[in-house]
Amino acid sequence: MGKGRLEAFSDGVIAIIITIMVLELKVPHGADWAALTELLPVFGSYVLSFVYVGIFWNNHHHMLHASSVVNGRVLWANLHLLFWLSLLPFATGWMGENEFAPLPVALYGAMLVMCAAAYTLLEKSLIACNPRDAVLGVAVGKEFKGIASVVLYLLAIPAAFLHVWISFTLYAAVALLWFMPDRRIEARFTS
């Protein structure tokens, strides 16, 4: 079956996720810098989550572009990824509203672990349903960035109970690692 509806549906869900996150940014009750300063934790968690959703969307786009077909397993794997991504606004809001308290920061890391696992499942499902010589199957090899991301997320979860800024730094490091799209796929389209 074609992949157009899957791409359109996924893009729509991701747009809604970003919309929900931005709606958590409440207008301050004051017209001075102090009113804005109170919003910094909420804004900081929003920026981090916006970057993460953008990274997942960007890599999702590249992965589907490199695929020629999808099947029922891919549809369910995609829904699984969208489920975990759809919980990011909750984790983002909880973390920001509680000024990066340990439990919300740890939960944020758990959500990112689940998003990464779901993305990997979708990637494997797409590779399995496309021809062996398809761009995606050829391009995806060793998963250094994927494995490193999960390891850093897993380290960040208990680190939140030591000092939340360790966790936040690890989350930011993973985001920087993925900020550029997966070059393995892009390189196959240009060669």
From TrEMBL:
InterPro entries assigned: TMEM175-like
Bilayer-spanning residue ranges: 9-27, 33-55, 75-95, 101-122, 134-156, 162-180
Keywords of the record: Ion channel, Ion transport, Membrane, Potassium, Potassium channel, Potassium transport, Transmembrane, Transmembrane helix, Transport
Catalytic activity: K(+)(in) = K(+)(out)
Subcellular location: Membrane
Family of the protein in this entry: Belongs to the TMEM175 family.
Name this protein carries in UniProt: DUF1211 domain-containing protein
Organism of this sequence: Duganella levis
